Amino acid sequence: MKKVIAIFLAAILIFSLAACGGTSGDTNSKTETSTSETKTGDTSSANNTSTDGKTLIVYFSWSNNTEKMANYIHDKIGGDIERIEPVEAYPEDYNETADKAKAERDNGDRPKFKELQFNPENYDTIFIGYPIWWYELPMIMRTFFDTYDLSGKTIIPFNTHEGSGDGGTYDQIKTEEPNAKVLEGLPIRGGDIENTDSKDKVTEWLTGLGY
Ligand SMILES: Cc1cc2nc3c(=O)[nH]c(=O)nc-3n(C[C@H](O)[C@H](O)[C@H](O)COP(=O)(O)O)c2cc1C
After folding, report:
1. What is the pLDDT of residues 106-160, one digit of tens each?
2. Which residue CA neighbors atom 17 of ligand 1 most closely?
3. Which residue out of 133, 136, 159, 195 has the highest number of ligand 1 atoms within 8 Å of its CB and is therefore the one to mutate?
4. Could you give the dihedral angle defined by the CA atoms of residues 148, 151, 154 and 156, in that order, rounded to the nearest 10 degrees?
5. Above 50 in pLDDT, residue 163?
6. Which tens digit of pLDDT belongs to each residue from 174-197?
7. Among 68, 83, 97, 132, residue to substitute to test ligand 1 (most atoms within 8 Å of Cβ)
8. What does CATH list as the number for 55-208?
9. From the CA of 133, how far away is ligand 1's center (Å)?
10. Residues in the ligand 1 pocket, defined by CB under 6 Å
11. How many angstroms does the Cα of residue 155 sit away from the middle of ligand 1?
12. Which atom of ligand 1 approaches the CA of 129 most closely?
């Protein structure tokens, strides 16, 4: 009888230990699951999981030329895309916007933009687009570069203009983000943005970049 009780107690003990082990095992397995999920498909870059080779296209556009260019790029390469929206919208009138933009440039202002849905710091490659304003970057783009540290990222600039080309802005970006790799950008004349020729230029440029 004693032997039966001893076996019975031993069985309870083993069961309890197994149950305990199961509980802690469960906890561990959740951790392990999330860890292994994190690493799935990306074992080479455990602390790089949010980037995962993803591309972001982020752009500022007032009269939508740069937005059209951004959309061509997005149609070709996919990834995430987001427009930089000023907190205080620019006037619809060209002259008023021109005056405001000039004052911002002359004062070295940093106009605020609305919080972005996508954090550029979480991407490996970022296409950054904007129009030329007063021969250079719109000041809101300076705010953008002040906001994000893009060290180690690949930046691919693109812009629209009405005669200034890139206006030296690709070099300005190199100064703003000295630890990023800034690739060859593409300027397109805003008035030509819907021409087949412009679309072809975008395609050729992307092909040259390896897309
Ligand atoms: C305030 C302002 C300043 C501009 N300054 C220049 C300039 O210095 N050089 C230039 O080539 N185009 C200039 N442009 C023309 C724009 O760069 C061009 O129209 C561009 O395609 C507009 O892009 P968006 O439609 O994305 O805003 C200026 C436009 C605005 C509104």
Report:
1. 999 999 999 999 999 999 999 999 999 999 999 999 999 999 999 999 999 999 9
2. 161
3. 133
4. 40
5. yes
6. 999 999 999 999 999 999 999 999
7. 132
8. 3.40.50.360
9. 5
10. 61-67, 97-98, 101, 131-135, 160-164, 190
11. 21
12. 26
SS3 19: helix
Q: Of all protein residues, whose CA lies closest to atom 18 belonging to ligand 1?
A: 161
With bands split at pLDDT 50, 70 and 90, how would you rate the model's confidence at 53?
confident
With beta carbons less than 8 A apart as the criterion, state whether 97 and 91 touch.
yes
Measured CA to CA, the distance from residue 21 to residue 190 in angstroms comes to 66
Atom of ligand 1 nearest to the CA of 134: 8
User: What tens digit of pLDDT does each residue of 80-101 get?
Assistant: 999 999 999 999 999 999 999 9
Tokens (6 digits) for 174: 């190199």
The domain limits of the chain are 1-49, 55-208
Strand partners for 55: 125
pTM: 0.80
Please determine, for residue 39, whether its predicted confidence score (pLDDT) is greater than 50: no
Q: Compute how many other C-beta atoms are within 10 angstroms of the C-beta atom of residue 63.
A: 13
Asked if 182 and 191 touch (Cβ cutoff 8 Å), the reply is no
- Which is it for the CA torsion 60, 145, 204, 52, positive or negative? negative
